[in-house]
Amino acid sequence: MGNFNYILIAIAVAVGPAVRVYLGRRNSKRYSVSTEGAVRVRAPRFPLIAVIILAPVGIALNVVGVFCLWFSIQAWIYSQDTSLFSYEDTAWVFLLALMSLAGGIFLSSLSYLMIMSLKNEYVETGIDYVEKRGRLGKVTRVFFQEISSYDYDVDSEGGVLTVGAADGREISFEVDYYRGDYVMAAIAIRKANGRWFDPTDETVHQRLVQIASDGTARRYIKAHPRDDDLSVSCGS
User: Fold this and answer.
1) What residues make up the domain containing 223?
2) Confidence check: pLDDT of 169 > 60
3) Does the pLDDT value for residue 178 go beyond 60?
């Protein structure tokens, strides 16, 4: 039985990331388009499975912790009657209370953050900008011409792209999960030509859409995964 449990854990560790990637890529097909042409993709829903499991466990641990804490306090108060309680027993119950409360608070907090992520988080790609709303509701928008640095972690789950502006604004998201190829296309055009072009120009926009859809931009960024000194000047 013990070996069987180890096998199940090994399968979960091996298959889990692949399942998340599959569901994340499916999530990229669920998007909305504004009247201005901005594409918005919300956070993948697969963390909901973890919430369903972790939230009840966290609540149960909190209940156990509160009960053990109450019991240890009562035992300490009435510890004169050593036939019922001993200092050693009280210490062990108190330790169990602390461990249960710590685990319960951690799992409850983690579940809360996951719920807030599912509720609030999205990445929106406009014609000339990328915008992200974080799990706690903070909205950050960076126009392409403001991008001063980027980093693409091709080996991370979903392919994490991080873009930063000179004033400290930063957006990080999984390209595969949030349809980030258009942002890659804007960066690739800038890298290849040494200057920014205006994506609101129809010719430029169509070129960005083309190299985003045919994979050219992604291949280029994979070959040049990082730059900390992009010009913020705009060309036409």
Assistant:
1) 125-227
2) yes
3) yes
